[in-house]
Amino acid sequence: MEHKSLFIRWRANFVTGLFIVLPAVVTIAVLVWVFGTVSNVTDTLLFFVPRDYTHKNNGDGPMHWYWSVIALLLAVLLTSVVGRLARNYFGKKMIEWADLTMMRVPLFNKIYAAIKQVNEAFATGDKNSFKTVVLVEFPSPGTYSIGFLTAEQEGEIQAKVPRRVVSVFIPTTPNPTSGFLILVPEDKVTKLEMSVSEAVKYIVSLGSITPPDKHT
Length: 216
Known about the structure:
The chain has 216 residues and is of the alpha+beta class. Helix 1 crosses helix 3. It has seven helices and five strands; from the N terminus they run H-H-H-H-H-E-E-H-E-E-E-H.
């Protein structure tokens, strides 16, 4: 009986500690994942520094973590410069020119336009892009995912299916700018009252930041 009592107390302490520690652990895990993913791109900014200095094993191994941090800081600085340029007339014209140039590159322009639209929708909360937060059965029956209602289907797609369908974007976690576009029967979509920003926080936090219940 005493051993059982000790186990019950240990379990209660563990569950309490888990709820306290979990947000920090998830946050650290997300930051480590983001840093690792971003560094794959930002590390190339140090192309002017000899690999013998930046990489292990005399340039043959992976980049030293502190050089990755320097590369990330350099990326932040360059991004800030671009943001500053975007706030004046000549900078805006330069960015518009760069946009037009990239939109003229075959294949690349399709991917660039799609990612830019999704990014702007998350950044600005454009109601024309993401109208409503919804709950749908995905990727299999009985399994639910958070998604964004993007449009009601018209034209060929709607004409080829027997039921009224809507477009739903299912973002991935912890990076909500990528995901899946699915067409769901309208009567299979459950609309939620949470805002787009609340849904994004929920997705990025791996579900640890739950939006408040607006019925209470």
